[in-house]
Amino acid sequence: MLQNGRIIDPDNGVDRQGDLLIVGGRIAAVGTPPPEDVQTVDVGGCWVVPGLIDMHVHLREPGEEYKEDIETGTRAAAAGGFTAVACMPNTRPVNDCLAVTALILERATRGSARVYPVGAISRGSKGESLADFGEMKEAGAVAVSDDGMPVVDSQLMRRALEYAADHRLTVISHSEELSLSRHGVMNEGPVSTRLGLKGVPAAAEAIMVYRDIALAEYTGRPVHIAHVSTAMATDLIRAAKARGVQVTAETTPHYFTLTDEAVQGYNTNAKMNPPLRSEADRRAVLQGLVDGTLDAVATDHAPHSTLEKDVEFDLAANGVIGLETAVPLTLELVRQGVIDEQQFVRLLSVNPARILNVPGGSLSAGRPADVSVIDPAEHFVYTADSVMSKSRNTPFLGRSMQGRAVMTLVDGRVKFSRPR
Amino acid sequence: MTFRHSMTTGYNFTQKHILGIHHLSVDDIDFILKTADSFKEISTRAIKKVPTMRGLTVINLFFEPSTRTRLSFEIAAKRMSADTYNISATTSSAVKGETLIDTARNISAMKPDIIIMRHSFAGAPEMLTRYIDASVINAGDGSHEHPSQGLLDMMTVREHKGRLEGLKVTIVGDILHSRVARSDLLGFTRMGARVFVYGPATMIPPGLEELGATVCSSLEEAVADADVVMTLRIQKERQKDPLFPSLREYAQKYGINRRILDRARPDAIVMHPGPINRGVELMPDVADGPRSVILDQVTNGVAVRMALLYLVMGNT
Questions:
Q1: Considering only CB atoms, which chain B residues are within 8 Å of A311?
Q2: Could you tell me if B261 and B304 lie in one domain?
Q3: Which residues of B touch A198 (CB under 8 A)?
Q4: Catalytic hit among A11, A96, A132, A300
């Protein structure tokens, strides 16, 4: 029983001080008398919310376990307050079949958070033909994506939207027009000019987002846009939603916190795809979170080792980790009055659950007790030693932050707890 | 030696590395140019040698092809009595797959004093400074900066015009890919000149106004009443996408010829960082004409590089 917490459960319209009782791994109804041998934990001063779900992470297993594996990745997730993660298929081999999906799920049984595999849209993510959606769904995949690459062939993307709907798989699109972004290593703008680096124009994202929206609109099938970073794309999504198109979208904490200025000094820990954008883009993405254009915050947690990052900027791999900093960075928005506490829970729990069509997102009685306990006030400095992920590639090292998970429960079992 | 004595008085130059003009203050630039002025004389002597850098180890680490810059740095170092060594990409262990950091660390373990580096990736020299003890002089990193070129350009203009402040300096060409343009833009604006740029729209990167340049909409406008007309080499090897249709069209629309030059001030000087694509960005009669100071640039290059080596030597 979690005592004295602030229970924030927007799906049930709840925001109250009180106790949350968990019996047999499930949320007990309000008013249920606690059993005699109940374990009580005082979570005074903390928020008690439905387990947070990160719908976009790279766990690197199978194939790149030196960067991260399912065990360390889910441990980092739990430390970050996440009870579930959706992991992308750009592993080695690519997750485009039952075998790899099953392997991931088997490894996940020893992990610290639920793992929802995202299968590939195309075989090998080569963008040529559809992967076996039915087989992957049966194996446990919840969505499909060729994340890391766009689906260049629009006919294939069209078929993917149609076929995925049949199998109730969410299609997550990495929207990037490659001919515009080719060889680009950061946002195209005054900073890229100053640093002498080839830039990726915002239009590269907008063009492909519009292509995906047009296909979703035409086929009447849903599409989810991953890692939105630009004002142009946010505006397109807003307009599409107003027209009734079934489009949802996510952004990451680094897009609403940082700009391309973070690349100064050729900082490879500020290099990712899509890249950090201009201040105008950052504000537009924030506005998108406020007005519901962007439905979810997902980290795109992308671990890389020093082999990939301690090199010349042009050669560095794209990606930053993010599982352990999502909560404090998103809490920053609550502190600034940009979003409220309910919106925080919707962005990190309610909406990801809905978009992926998985359980979670609420503390309704009878549901599995996936619960995140967050201390919104705790100050800390994010240092390299505190990082739980195997990799340290983050632009936030050394940053003073406020607010983090103190306990994370999956099925009522404590997967992470931090002494207070 | 007398020049050394005069150097030790006056300004306190504290830079350990020369990574770019953007790290240099107005006073830094002024002092480098003055120092270069006094070194220039050495290259006119019968015995072009002073013992200033005797016993110092200078390594030219060039990952990109270069004749003039490398030779210029080597001559500068040798005239100051330093021991110089050249490593080029094709003969380095980079072909064996060694990372830049490992290459640098291995060289650093042999205790060089100064490493002069040219690399095709922006930021590479800056990255080097995080891993080695020696001073690093950037001889050109991708499209980012070529500080010694910017400095020798400023020295040349100051020599011919007596000042930098208030001059109209026009740069024409592929600004997008040009590290020379960036260094010149930063340097000339910092020293009070007015920089105007022009080129095909495909080669004008965003944000130049923020850096202090005026982006012109025609060649005539750019060159009108200019004190300095500088044109850049069309870098065929740095282009990966279709920026302009043909060299012929480029020469016709953007090349500096006598007719265009007549719009500049009568005493305007013509500059080019070299090597020249004759007949493309610069017509031969202008390149070899009375207003061209291109060869002065090369002479000043040696003096500026001697100055940089000398000034950095004290802080290494």
A1: 99-101
A2: no
A3: 143
A4: A300
pLDDT of residue B5: 40
| Residues of B identified as active-site | 68-69, 96, 118, 146
Number of separate domains in chain B? 2
Residues of chain B contacting residue A195, judged by C-beta atoms under 8 Å apart: 122-123, 144
| CB count in 10 Å sphere of residue A399 | 15
Statement: residue B95 has pLDDT above 90? no
pLDDT at B315 (0 to 100): 82
Rounded alpha-carbon distances, angstroms, from residue A338 to A232, A256, A334, B286, B289: 21, 11, 6, 61, 64
In this structure, are B283 and B158 located in the same domain? yes
Asked if B179's CB is within 8 angstroms of A196's CB, the reply is: yes
Taking only the tens place, the pLDDT of each residue in A306-356 is: 999 999 999 999 999 999 999 999 999 999 999 999 999 999 999 999 999
Taking 60 as the threshold, does the pLDDT of residue B4 lie above it? no
Same domain, B163 and B267: yes
Shortest distance between the Cα of B206 and any Cα of chain A, in A, equals: 5
Kindly report the average pLDDT of chain B as a whole number: 92
Of B314 and A158, which is predicted with more confidence? A158
Rounded distance between C-alpha atoms, residue B63 and residue A396, angstroms: 33
So what's the pLDDT on residue A341?
A: 97
Q: What is the architecture, at CATH level 2, of domain A51-361?
A: Alpha-Beta Barrel (3.20)
User: What's the rounded Cα separation, in Å, for the pair B13 and B242?
Assistant: 44
Same domain, yes or no: B224 and B287: yes
Q: Scanning the structure block, which residue is given the tokens 């390594």?
A: B59
Do residue B152 and residue B67 come from a single domain?
Answer: no
Is the pLDDT score of B236 beyond 90?
no
**Dist CA A317 CA B76 (whole Å):** 38
For residues B180 and B229, membership in a common domain is answered with yes
Residues B168 and B271 in one domain: yes
Chain A residues whose C-beta sits inside 8 Å of any chain B C-beta: 182-183, 188-199, 265-266, 310-315
Of A190, A197, A315, the CB nearest to B210: A190
Mutant choice from B102, B103, B143, B186 vs A, greatest count of A C-beta within 10 A: B143
Q: Which residue of chain A is at minimal alpha-carbon distance from B104?
A: A311
Query: Which sign does the torsion angle of CA A9, A11, A15, A21 carry?
Result: negative
Query: Domain span at residue B23?
Result: 2-145+298-313
The helix (H) or strand (E) run that includes residue A352 is helix A351-356
Same domain for B308 and B279: no
